Amino acid sequence: MTTATVYAEFAAREAVGESPAYEALAVAVSHDARLLSLLDTLPPAKRQPNLLFAVGQYLDGPVTDPAAFLEFAVTEWARVKEQILVRATQTNEPGRCALLLPVLAALPQPLALLEVGTSAGLNLFPDRYTYRYGDQVLGHGGPILDCELTGTAPPDRLPEVVWRAGLDLNPLDLTDPADAAWLEALIWPEHDHRRARQQAAARIVAAEPPLLVRGDLVDDLPALVAHAPAGATLVIFHTSVLYQVPAERREIFLSDVRGKPGHWISVENPTVIAYDNLPSPPDETLHNVLALDGKPLAWARAHGGGLTWFG
Length: 311
Fold this sequence. Notes:
311 residues, 35% helix, nine-stranded mixed β-sheet
């Protein structure tokens, strides 16, 4: 797939209906030969729209003005490229906890949570947030996470979490101004509600920092698993992470994680983890697949706003 096609697909399937600014920006990039030629000098994993646009926000670029952004990105390419090469799309969206909750609540309690690709660890606190599935509200305090749930009943309890740990190649520190600024830059321009709930979640995490370990999902996962307390159900989970992992390493991880104790929850694009006989998604926009121990359960919106249960 060409870089131009990647940006056109992002506009049509991910940004449409979610971010008019990013939709217009992606369309503009897909037609701009100058910027496309610069992007094509980068490793393929570094050409993705979310990364370019987040770097644009991080550098105070005009991300709501396509023509101005194209000129900014080309003129300031040295700065843009520098940040693209050292940054990754570490979106730490607490709204994804609304996708995890129906599975977490149904597992034997208490839970020991281990997140792969944890970013700053905001998704390690599903027991501290409030959830709204239509008219059903669960929890109190923290940010309110709205999720349109169809095909199954909403969960009726919060999980009991006794241990929280995260693994990341570059865990983010909420007390570091540069890391905090990067987390905010990853939020799409119009999404003030996401910005507010990320800030609310960050206050919860800062008050009780989880164990965040710098390491590789293949080489360093076994040692972290060994730290999980006895008497708790270990849950290894990841959301929108594996697309950034090279295919060979990804397959090793998938093979390894299936042999770990406890349970494994994934929320990933079906092009990253393949499943047989998936039903059609609710519409043409991007949906990930929520799965438990390799069994697909539901279509999931990327930022946690919707969950469509299979069957």
